[in-house]
Every structure is written in C-alpha cells, then in structure tokens.
Write a structure and sequence with these properties.
This protein has no helices and eleven strands. The protein is mainly β and 121 residues long. Strand 4 and strand 5 form a beta hairpin.
Amino acid sequence: QVQLVESGGGLVQSGGSLRLSCVASGGISSVSVMDWYRQAPGKQRELVASMNELGNINYGEAVKGRVSISRDHGKNAAYLQLNSLKSEDTGVYYCRATLRALDNPRPQSIWGQGTQVTVSS
C-alpha cells in the first residue's frame, strides 16, 4: 500500500551539488524515521543520513559536513542536499521510511527503488 519514490539523481561534476527527494504515498498513519542510504558497485549499503520523529539527525562519517537531511511532515517527504560531491559519492541512493500504515498499527520499514547519483571529474 505505502510506496516511496526517490528522485533528483543524475550526473554531476566533482564539487557540484544535487538535491534528492523522497516522497511516501498511500495510507500512512505516522512516520517515525526517514533515512537515506547509498550503495556503490561492489560495496555494502551505507548510511548517509537519518532523521527520527524527534528531529534528531545522524550522518554517515563519509559525508559529514557535506550533506543535509530535511523533512516535510505534511508531504511525507524527506530531502537530501548533497554538496561538494566527490567521485566516491557515486552510487544508488535509497530512501527508507519507518512508519505505521492506516490499516496496520505495526511499525514497518519501506524502501524506495533508489536514484542513481554519478559524480564525474
């Protein structure tokens, strides 16, 4: 029922910026945590940024100082601002939401399909 859709990825030069969007749709009761992860070819998925229901934020060590996560609760959306991009930032960026659906009171995690970010030099 609930779906997450990421957008905003693309090709950018080293040092450039991108703004990624994640929008959840469907019957949603409440959203607690929204996260951004990324996965480069041949590597494990790693945390980029996370924001919980209290507004507390955590960033992955590799991106601290270069990224910013924000949320729009009314739109069930999360955004990821990527700055000073490097070639090692290349990968598929995935959004995750931990939420309760209207027809299911149990918390569940929903993943989007991902959006490709490619940083060239």
